[in-house]
Amino acid sequence: MTEFWFSRHGILRRYLLLIGAIIATQISVYGSLLFTRWQGALAQLLVSADSNNFGSFVLAFVIAVCTTEVSSALALLFIKWIGIDWRQWLTNVVMRNWLRNDAFAWMERTRRIDNPDQRISEDTDQFATTLLSLAIGFLKNISMLWTYSLLVWEKGGPLVLGWGGQTLTIQGGMFWFSIAWASFVTIVAAFAGRAFKTLTIRQQQAEANFRFAAADIRNNAEAIALMHGGPREGETLLRKFLSVRTAVLRLAFFNARFDMLRGVLAMIGAQIPTLLLLPRYFRHEIGANALMQTAAGVAALTVSLQWIVDNYTTIQQFRAASTRLTELKDAAAEAGRLHRPAIERAADSEFILHDLSVADPENKTLIGNLSATIRPGERWIVRGSPGSGKSSLLRTLGGLWPYGNGTILFPHDANVISLPQLAYFPDGTLRDALAYPQESSHFKDADYAAALSAALMTPFSSALDETARWRKRLSPGQLQKLAFARAFLHKPDILFLDEATASLDGRSEEVLYRTLVAHLPASIIVSVSHHPSLDRFHTDSLDLAGDGAWTFGKITL
């Protein structure tokens, strides 16, 4: 996930922004030091009541504030700029892994991981922005650590501890106190905050599940309304939200305890340096200037040493995002390693199945050692009872079904189209929906009109440039006709149809298949259907028994 920094695209801008962020951060550290020195000068001014240098004193304040705030704002801008570039690159990588080898379909079917959409949209942002902020912040912290260590060592002087008439002098005592106190706070925070990562992941899962359930209602609104299922869906959503509520409250209670502990320790740590230095001030060993500078320096040094504590929440958010992205990456890799029938491309024009076996997820054999050669112009219909493996066979031919083995040889450069019972049509213009997955410019207007006419959808020829959610606007029967129009438009060499006319009346089904045979005379067609009326549009049959057995047959009319 860090290959972004070695990518040649945009490398000059990337590193210029990074250098700019680092320089701006270091300038902000210098501005912080100027402000610390100004605080010491303020204390000295109050003690001396000298107004002669008041103008230069105010100017020093303005310079310190401007130096700190302007450089901090620039550093934040540069970090955000690099962060969105990194997020764009990371989103592209994660998305490609998710879509490669049809891993997204396998994840959805097996529920291997939850909410991949959230991981792509949100966790990539968390990963890139938090890691970058932490890295730049760590560099800033190192500079502050060095700067304020020198200041505290110089201004703090020795720390004298006494008891029972004995005294102990510790050179650089305030420096060593800062280290000891920061170490104590870090250990306490690490122990108290160890549950944060788990609670964060659980909240993200609950939020994503609730959002997905609400989106599912929207996507199936009409079917739910016809079943009067609104109240039931409301109960389901409420249960999902109660999980969100529980996760949020658990994290809130944890944060309340953790923030209270951190706040108490911060308040105590802020006052101890002054209390330790007051005896020396009362003995006139140090002045008000040195007292204020040292106290402020110890506070800044302690904050630097407590960097892990102050960024604990951010670190755990980064760890949670990193874990979820790694899980998505591993799941995509697992999908790529699945043992499935080998799909190859051959120079021949025939579609060949060699010793193809298909099983169900429980490893029960549905089709055993199927070998067949399907030549251009042949049309096969696959028949069998429900559960016999008809749809599983087509998924196997499409490379989606990992439960099986054997070899599938497609003709070289063959254009393959699949028409499932409910085809996918992206939102957008009708032209885009028909051309999918090609660009709409790949076809001419006359091609679209001819395809729609052949699919009994002539009235829609005037709606080619109309934008709509076609999956929601059209009826199931119209969507199946539109799928046939897509097939007529693409003119595939191989066409798979899985119950592609299940929502059509007998007359429309007959017309579409007759047109299909006429428009694609040289194409290889494999249909799955339980309609005997479609037999006459095919040349061969494949009957599946569901126990591994199968039989071929020639169809004669």
What does this structure look like?
This protein is an alpha/beta fold and 557 residues long. The protein has two domains: 3-337, ABC transporter transmembrane region fold (Up-down Bundle), CATH 1.20.1560.10; 342-554, P-loop containing nucleotide triphosphate hydrolases (Rossmann fold), CATH 3.40.50. It has 17 helices and 14 strands. It has a six-stranded mixed beta sheet with strand order 8-11-12-6-13-14, with helices on both faces. A four-stranded mixed beta sheet has the order 3-7-4-5, covered by helices on one side. The longest helix has 53 residues, at 230-282. The model has no long low-confidence stretch (mean pLDDT 82).
Kindly report the name of the CATH homologous superfamily of the largest domain. Answer: ABC transporter type 1, transmembrane domain
| Helical/strand content category | alpha/beta
Q: What is the number of helices?
A: 17
DSSP helix fraction: 55-70%
Number of domains: 2
In terms of quaternary structure, what is this? single chain
- Mean model confidence by pLDDT: 82
Radius of gyration: 35 Å
CATH architecture descriptor name of the largest domain: Up-down Bundle
CATH fold type of the largest domain: ABC transporter transmembrane region fold
Strand count, sense and barrel status of the largest sheet are: 6 strands, mixed
- What is the CATH domain class of the largest domain? Mainly Alpha
Strands, total number: 14
Going across the major beta sheet, what is the strand order?
A: 8-11-12-6-13-14
Overall 3D geometry? Answer: elongated
The fraction of residues in strands falls at 5-15%
Transmembrane segments: 15-35, 55-79, 127-153, 173-193, 260-278
Domain ABC transporter: 351-555
Keywords: ATP-binding, Membrane, Nucleotide-binding, Transmembrane, Transmembrane helix, Transport
InterPro entries: AAA+_ATPase, ABC1_TM_dom, ABC1_TM_sf, ABC_transporter-like_ATP-bd, ABC_transporter-like_CS, ABC_transporter_sub-D, P-loop_NTPase
